[in-house]
Design brief:
single chain; mainly alpha; Ferritin; binds fe (ii) ion
């Protein structure tokens, strides 16, 4: 049933796997650079991409297809925050274009449930795009100081004395 939909859903999973792996990679590098805001955004969005994989996979199984868990590309070893955001916005932009195309294809072959699934995921990808785009704008507006401030917040937290265990 709906062989074409299964093919499109597997292509979408490959894109999600790429974004998921890339965002987790960005997350731990931002964390390593003490960039708390960026690190959290990448982590949260990676989790959402994982949920997209799950939603697409559930639909494939419902259609009696096989789930291919392969990323469309390898992780790119980008560690500069501005470059990370550039890549992330591009990934989201590409996903939005692709899923719109897939939704139309599903409509053409009469699979309205998969079409709606793509449409609901597009709405979330648009929010991801917005998250990344806002962060890019902040860096452009405030310059490197925006990133330096995040590191300073972390440093401040490190400076707070921790409660000590009472010695008996
Ligand atoms: Fe996604
Ligand atoms: Fe996304």
């Amino acid at each position: 049933m709906h062989k074409k939909s299964i093919e499109l859903l597997n292509k979408a999973i490959a894109e999600e796997m790429t974004a998921l792996q890339q965002y987790i990679y960005f997350h731990f590098h931002c964390d390593d650079q003490d960039l708390d805001i960026l690190s959290t955004i990448f982590r949260q969005n990676a989790i959402q991409e994982m949920i997209h994989v799950e939603r697409f996979a559930e639909r494939i199984l419902f259609l009696k297809g096989e789930v291919e868990m392969k990323a469309s590309q390898d992780v790119q070893k980008i560690t500069d925050p501005e470059e990370m955001l550039k890549m992330a916005t591009k990934l989201e932009e590409d996903a939005i274009i692709l899923y719109n195309k897939f939704a139309n294809e599903c409509a053409q072959h009469g699979d309205s449930v998969t079409k709606q699934l793509f449409e609901s995921v597009i709405a979330e990808e648009e929010r991801h795009y917005d998250d990344f785009d806002k962060e890019s704008e902040n860096i452009q507006t405030y310059g490197k100081e925006y990133l330096a401030l995040q590191s300073m917040e972390r440093a401040k937290k490190r400076g707070i004395p921790r409660p000590t265990t009472p010695v008996e």
